[in-house]
Amino acid sequence: MTHGTPPSASSEFTLELGDADLTDRIAHGMGRVEDVLYERLSEGEDFITDKVTHLMKAGGKRFRPLVALLCSEFGPEPGAENVVKGAAITEMVHLATLYHDDVMDEAAKRRGVDSANHRWGNTVAILAGDILFAHASRLMSEINTDTVRHFADTFAKLVTGQMRETVGARGGDPVEHYLKVIEEKTGVLIGSAAYLGARLSGAEDEVVRRCEEIGGAIGMVFQIVDDIIDIFSTSTESGKVPGTDLREGVFTLPVLYALREDSPAGEELRGLLTGPLTRDEDVSRALELIAATDGRERALDDVHRYLAVAEQQLDQLPDIPANRALRQLSRYTVERVG
């Protein structure tokens, strides 16, 4: 059974990209991506489609399709039909990983609504994620075998990152381990979005390679900034309870840097963070201790290092509006932490 698609979402795109024509093209492209998502994910039995479209309808930034469409501007066919399909694939894969992540993390909420696992149980949530992968695979097959091969590699890296996180650092450097995990879990898929946007618009190999590196670097910036916001922002600023990761026993980059600091705050923190924090007073104390270390500054140093990688690659690409928009996008991400 196939349900009707909604009106184009292009009118909902509000990000100003610094060039009116580019903004209009990207807005139109984002609307086409949204139409593909609704059309494809509404195919099948009702008892499947309401679960599969659950998180899609809850919203989200659609950051990966945006990166794909911007990178398609470097090729001779920006916003082509296959570019739109490629952008939709990246969002489907992203949604699938969210369903599976929420099961592993036992999350109750996602995008302001009940997570699928909380609402329907783990089995249904896992199967909904699997259906999303099936829809993405079908779209890939409609493009070409190179796209299928590329995403086979992407899938492998995504799963490796999740497995790497699960098994832990195993005696290695916790910071290096964490950076590798977020590269594989976050950076790789945003890099793939950039790759597909450029490749499917007909860009030259060197341009495609640079776009993929830009996307990966922006992904790292995006994730580390989220880590910093979780620790150092108020609920009003971030929309979530500060220290959520600490409550779950997840030690992100600013926390890992704070833990290795040779100072009274670092020493007390090492005694406190031996697992998930269940008491509010412990979370509050941990946040105070982290703020007393150089954890935030060192994490920001890494943010600027990855930002520099993106800008160095952009320096080698044509100075078109999309180039400036990608710079603006990555800088805006950094500005979120003040």
Describe this structure in words.
This protein folds into two domains: 1-147, Orthogonal Bundle (Farnesyl Diphosphate Synthase); 204-338, Farnesyl Diphosphate Synthase. The longest helix is centred in the middle third of the chain and has 28 residues, at 205-232. The radius of gyration is 20 Å and the shape is globular. The protein has helices at 20-41, 46-52, 54-57, 63-71, 81-105, 116-120, 122-143, 145-167, 174-200, 205-232, 235-238, 244-247, 253-259, 264-272, 280-291, 295-315, 321-335, and strands at 109-110, 113-114. It has 17 helices and two strands. The chain has a two-stranded antiparallel ribbon. It is mainly α and 338 residues long. The model is unreliable at 1-11 (pLDDT under 50).
Order of helices and strands: HHHHHEEHHHHHHHHHHHH
Give the oligomer, counting copies of the same chain as homo and different chains as hetero.
Answer: single chain
Judging from the principal axes of the Cα atoms, what is the shape? globular
**Cα-based radius of gyration, to the nearest Å:** 20 Å
What portion of residues belong to β-strands?
Answer: under 5%
Helical percent range? over 70%
Provide a count of the helices: 17
CATH superfamily of the largest domain: Farnesyl Diphosphate Synthase
Instruction: Output mean pLDDT.
Output: 90
Point out poorly predicted stretches: 1-11
Please list the strands of the largest sheet in the order they lie side by side.
1-2
The appropriate CATH architecture of the largest domain is: Orthogonal Bundle
How far apart lie the N and C ends? Answer: 48 Å
In the CATH hierarchy, the third-tier topology of the largest domain is known as: Farnesyl Diphosphate Synthase
Summarize the biggest pleated sheet: 2 strands, antiparallel
Structural class: mainly alpha
* Count of strand segments: 2
CATH class category of the largest domain: Mainly Alpha
Structurally, how many domains make up the residues?
Answer: 2
